[in-house]
Amino acid sequence: YSEEELYRPEFHFTPKANWMNDPNGMFFYNGYYHLYFQHYPDGNVWGPMHWGHAISTDMVTWVEKPIALFPDEKGYIFSGSAVVDANNTSGFGEGGKIPIVAMFTYHDMDKEKQGDIDFQSQAIAYSLDEGLTWEKYADNPVIKNPNIKDFRDPKIVWDAVNKKWIMVLAAGQEIMFYSSKNLKDWEFLSNFGENVGSHNGVWECPDLFAMQTEGTDEIKWVLLVSVGSGGYNEGSATQYFVGDFDGKTFKIDPTFKDHLDKNNASWIDYGKDNYAGVTWSNIPDTDGRKLFIGWMSNWQYAIKVPTEKWRSSMTVARELKLTKTDNQYQLKSLPVKEISNYVSKTVKKSSISIEKGKRTLLTNNTLVDFKSLDIHFKINNLKEDTYTFCFDNKRGDSIKFGVNNNKQFYFSDRTASGNISFSKDFAPNISKAPYAANGNDLEVRLLLDKTSIEIFYNNGETVMTEIFFPKNPIEAFSVKSENFNFEIENLIINELNFN
Ligand code: FRU
């Protein structure tokens, strides 16, 4: 197999060629979901940043478009966001055309090289052709650097209650909140993060949005903050906070403190490969979903992964939900429902008896094509045992996952997944996630796409996303328990087809 055939995902977005990192500027307009991304079109490692662009009608399959924003004399184009300015608050609209306004960070390399610390500032650009081409604003930057070294990744959100734009920005290890009436003049409001959250790395790519707590009328605000290192399984990862925002200040909900782990954080994904993710803007109220996508890699090894032609993919687009059980807020994620439109074959088994200590095959490549699968199953009444699921091939490459119900953790294990030697940080151990008990019943949904696994435990309460690079394609799916026989209930294996 050539690298291309073996490693390029079937449906997760990858750039046609060269480097990609964070998703940027996502908005929905006129039937299309737009996805921009940190892109270096001239090389397969990080370099002068552009905004690449892709569009989709369903967030599952993507069409890459021409580059949207190029670096210029003011700097590289770092991460940011975009909004549909339907009321033309910016005045950029012309001849009845609705402007799309993007806000990004200029990173001035020359200033950085000189040793100055004020090399990042915020700038805007607008598009009058639905996001295809962009005009940078003549008076950029719109927010100058206030002498803070890391000062970047503006995410704009419309505050419908206070009728103004709110912007969240990562500044060192804090979040700064700003507001504006016209997207050009920005007023500083407040900051957040001093005594809470993981501070093991620089804060990046924040997002702020209001959500209804499922099954209630209660509205809470969720703040996402990516942190460069010190994730639950080391490396870069994205934390979240649930609280209230009054148009000026974000306050974490007092009950949410109980939700924080040893790093004082709570994670949207416990796998090693979901970073810098944010949500789409302008999703119609009739839809009402909070839709998220992340970069499916980790700064620990992103520039070393064994693909040459392209580097990095995005996660599957996910719907976020906020739940409250036993007085605990929890952000859940599941793949967008649109994925089910691509099911080409289904293998179903209502119940399978598994004998302890024995590897039991659940399916293999004579029954389904392993390129991309969407799998669901349940186990009721977990015993004090370890339940290990395994994708592998005859060569012996394996990706394992499951639950250790003795020590109470979920895991994902790529330590024998094939090519792991490109970085010592790629698979030093198995990855773990804290166990969120569900009356001892386990429900699993997972997506497999050639070089990635996204595991959604208990309806998306705990998520683990990990990439891997097997030397041969995966051919089989099996399971093993150690000490107790058990039943797998409602196994559904959906083969996905994108041709
Ligand atoms: C996050 C990040 C952002 C920055 C961008 C640069 O991965 O470091 O903070 O804007 O990548 O490419």
From TrEMBL:
<feature type="domain" description="Glycosyl hydrolase family 32 N-terminal">
    <location>
        <begin position="12"/>
        <end position="331"/>
    </location>
</feature>
<dbReference type="InterPro" id="IPR023296">
    <property type="entry name" value="Glyco_hydro_beta-prop_sf"/>
</dbReference>
<dbReference type="InterPro" id="IPR001362">
    <property type="entry name" value="Glyco_hydro_32"/>
</dbReference>
<dbReference type="GO" id="GO:0005987">
    <property type="term" value="P:sucrose catabolic process"/>
</dbReference>
<dbReference type="Pfam" id="PF00251">
    <property type="entry name" value="Glyco_hydro_32N"/>
</dbReference>
<dbReference type="GO" id="GO:0005737">
    <property type="term" value="C:cytoplasm"/>
</dbReference>
<protein>
    <submittedName>
        <fullName>Levanase/fructan beta-fructosidase</fullName>
    </submittedName>
</protein>
<keyword id="KW-0326">Glycosidase</keyword>
<keyword id="KW-0378">Hydrolase</keyword>
<dbReference type="InterPro" id="IPR018053">
    <property type="entry name" value="Glyco_hydro_32_AS"/>
</dbReference>
<dbReference type="InterPro" id="IPR013189">
    <property type="entry name" value="Glyco_hydro_32_C"/>
</dbReference>
<dbReference type="GO" id="GO:0004575">
    <property type="term" value="F:sucrose alpha-glucosidase activity"/>
</dbReference>
<feature type="domain" description="Glycosyl hydrolase family 32 C-terminal">
    <location>
        <begin position="345"/>
        <end position="490"/>
    </location>
</feature>
<comment type="similarity">
    <text>Belongs to the glycosyl hydrolase 32 family.</text>
</comment>
<dbReference type="InterPro" id="IPR013148">
    <property type="entry name" value="Glyco_hydro_32_N"/>
</dbReference>
<dbReference type="InterPro" id="IPR013320">
    <property type="entry name" value="ConA-like_dom_sf"/>
</dbReference>
<dbReference type="Pfam" id="PF08244">
    <property type="entry name" value="Glyco_hydro_32C"/>
</dbReference>
